[in-house]
Design brief:
Elements: H1 3-12, H2 19-33, E1 34-40, E2 43-50, H3 53-65, E3 71-76, E4 84-91, H4 94-102, H5 124-138, E5 139-142, E6 148-153, H6 156-167, E7 174-177, E8 182-187, H7 189-199, H8 202-251, H9 260-271, H10 277-283, H11 290-305
Antiparallel strand pairs: 1-2, 2-4, 3-4, 5-6, 6-8, 7-8
């Protein structure tokens, strides 16, 4: 299941508490995924085209709450994955037109409106419900690693309205216009979490935060493992070079003439070829520091190169 489906499923499970919330959510669904069709002689039909069964069920339930009949139909997209889409057909009966005008979907002359009037989103709860409906109708969420949330709008005015609405509930959205439509979008964990929380998708927010913590922990563990491996490789190469230097000094008969600390360091490295500098330092008599043993072994390597 994709992140977008997780968001839609959680949002569709939230039951609006007031009629004003239901109206705002219904308004957003139609503005995000609706289309009006003039049938002639003053008749009009309105369709909703949705990408998930959860969103379609929610839209059907909202219409039924306002006593507006609708019919659900399905079809498959003409695309690579041939995903199933859901259409809700609302016939232009008197009750349906009344509700759609009240929701700011249709104007007085039954022309579609790009954004609702202010009274639809007057309260904070209504603004959250409108965001919820917009995400259900035309929202998508991708990532990680590059998290991106966007809500598609039919035009630039609609996308800017979404951005202003989100800003009023402390959920920042940016706007960009594309060739055939406009989008209001958010990038980054904090901005996306604010938008989802304002719409009510708290479980998805927690899931994203959990994934972020797991990802950061995994990255830190990988960095530490890589650093440990690199340190082991460097230490192994250094020990090999030290052993070769000690053998060359022995072959040239120079080892016995060296000062006692250097001879001791050579003997300890020969007896303990894979020991760390700290281990060798503890074995010296008297015990030396790690830096002192390192200087002595480095001196042996330089003498062998002369």
């Amino acid at each position: 299941m994709t992140l977008s489906e997780d968001v839609r499923n959680e949002l569709a499970s939230i039951e609006p508490e007031r009629d004003c919330d239901r109206l705002a959510e219904l308004s957003a669904l139609f503005h995000a995924a609706g289309s009006a069709h003039l049938l002639g002689r003053g008749r009009v039909a309105v369709h909703l085209d949705l990408g998930s069964a959860a969103a379609a069920r929610r839209a059907f339930a909202l219409l039924r709450a306002f006593e507006v009949p609708s019919e659900i139909r399905t079809y498959r997209q003409r695309s690579f994955d041939r995903a199933t889409r859901y259409q809700l057909h609302v016939h232009g009966e008197a009750r349906a037109l009344e509700v759609l005008r009240e929701a700011g979907v249709l104007g007085a002359r039954l022309a579609p409106l790009e954004r609702p009037p202010r009274h639809v989103v007057a309260r904070a709860c209504c603004r959250g419900a409108y965001l919820r409906g917009a995400l259900l109708g035309a929202g998508s969420l991708t990532g990680p690693p590059a998290r991106h949330l966007e809500i598609r709008a039919s035009g630039l005015d609609g996308a800017r309205f979404l951005a202003r609405l989100a800003a009023s509930v402390d959920a920042p959205l940016r706007v960009v216009e594309r060739r055939t439509h406009a989008v209001a979008y958010a990038k980054g964990s904090e901005a996306i979490a604010s938008v989802l929380a304002a719409a009510g998708a708290s479980d998805v927010v927690l899931g994203l935060e959990e994934r972020g913590v797991i990802g950061a922990t995994r990255s830190s563990a990988n960095r530490l493992a890589n650093a440990d491996h690199a340190n082991l490789v460097r230490a192994g190469r250094a020990a090999h070079a030290q052993l070769q230097a000690i053998r060359r000094l022995e072959e040239r008969g120079l080892l016995d003439d060296l000062p006692a600390p250097l001879r001791e360091a050579a003997a300890l490295r020969t007896r303990h070829p894979s020991a760390s500098l700290r281990d060798l330092a503890r074995r010296t008599s008297p015990p030396a520091t790690k830096a002192a043993v390192h200087r002595r072994l480095t001196r042996l390597v330089r003498l062998a190169e002369l």
